[in-house]
């Protein structure tokens, strides 16, 4: 129930809620971070929010970031420490319908909840068809198939790192949604390895190596 988001959020320092973009979510009295330019939430907005929460809060306060996938990369990195070590009584509520667009470092610091009423078919994930096909193959790949799959992904002539990260990001989103649609824990078990591969590649690690070694 979407009305339970404040109650759920009180139990954790940071929670991500996957909710369709057009769906109303009400959290009275929340500090809201949203794109100023309609494109990104900037690092300056994040710094202003952090400054507003330096004083200890005597009651529960919610920081709502929506859509969380509009955090710019600098803004995401700036908010990491706050998400990892939130001030007492401060609860971060990240709302998105594009889980794959968030950095793995944020995903690994948050409790993730997917609203069952808003789960859409896997094919409706916002990504190019080729990306979705490769993402599905990564989820289904056996260890001896990963080398050929890594070769195929890295054969792209330009933007290979960004391409690989997009494929892994969509695979992460597919794994979460597949678990909630099917209840099969095998999908959840794949997520830590996908996150590890994504994070290593995003840190300029060897693309082909991490597509194989991290996913075995």
Walkthrough of the structure:
This protein has 216 residues and is an alpha/beta fold. Helices cover 46% and strands 11% of the residues. The chain has nine helices and five strands; from the N terminus they run αββαβαβαβααααα. It has helices at 5-9, 43-52, 73-84, 104-107, 129-140, 146-153, 160-182, 185-202, 207-213, and strands at residues 14-18, 31-33, 61-65, 90-96, 111-114. Strands 2-3-4-1-5 form a five-stranded parallel β-sheet. Helix 2 (43-52) links the parallel strand 2 and strand 3 (61-65). The longest helix has 23 residues, at 160-182. The model has no long low-confidence stretch (mean pLDDT 90).
Order of helices and strands: HEEHEHEHEHHHHH
Q: Which bin fits the share of residues in helices?
A: 40-55%
Report the strand count. Answer: 5
Shape: globular
User: Which class do the helix and strand fractions yield?
Assistant: alpha/beta
Report the end-to-end length measured between terminal Cα atoms. 37 Å
What composes the largest sheet? 5 strands, parallel
The total of helices stands at: 9
Global Rg = 18 Å
**Strands side by side in the biggest sheet:** 2-3-4-1-5
Report strand %.
5-15%
Average predicted confidence as pLDDT: 90
Low-confidence runs (pLDDT<50, min 5 residues)?
none
Summarize the structure.
The protein is α/β, with parallel strands linked by helices and 216 residues long.
């Amino acid at each position: 129930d979407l009305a339970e988001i404040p109650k759920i959020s009180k139990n954790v320092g940071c929670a991500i809620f996957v909710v369709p973009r057009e769906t109303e979510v009400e959290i009275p009295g929340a500090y809201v971070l949203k794109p100023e330019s309609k494109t990104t939430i900037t690092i300056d907005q994040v710094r202003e929010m952090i400054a507003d929460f330096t004083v200890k809060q005597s009651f529960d306060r919610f920081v709502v970031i929506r859509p969380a996938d509009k955090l710019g990369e600098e803004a995401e990195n700036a908010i990491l420490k706050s998400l990892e070590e939130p001030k007492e009584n401060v609860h971060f509520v990240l709302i998105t319908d594009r889980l794959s667009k968030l950095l793995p470092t944020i995903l690994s610091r948050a409790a993730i909840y997917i609203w069952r009423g808003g789960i859409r078919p896997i094919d409706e994930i916002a990504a190019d068809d080729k990306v979705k096909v490769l993402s599905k193959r990564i989820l289904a790949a056996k260890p001896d198939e990963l080398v050929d799959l890594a070769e195929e992904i890295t054969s792209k002539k330009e933007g290979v790192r960004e391409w690989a990260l997009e494929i892994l990001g969509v695979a992460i989103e597919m794994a979460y949604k597949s678990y909630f649609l099917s209840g099969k824990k095998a999908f959840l078990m794949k997520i830590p390895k996908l996150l590890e591969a994504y994070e290593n590649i995003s840190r300029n690690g060897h693309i082909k190596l991490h597509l194989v070694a991290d996913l075995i």
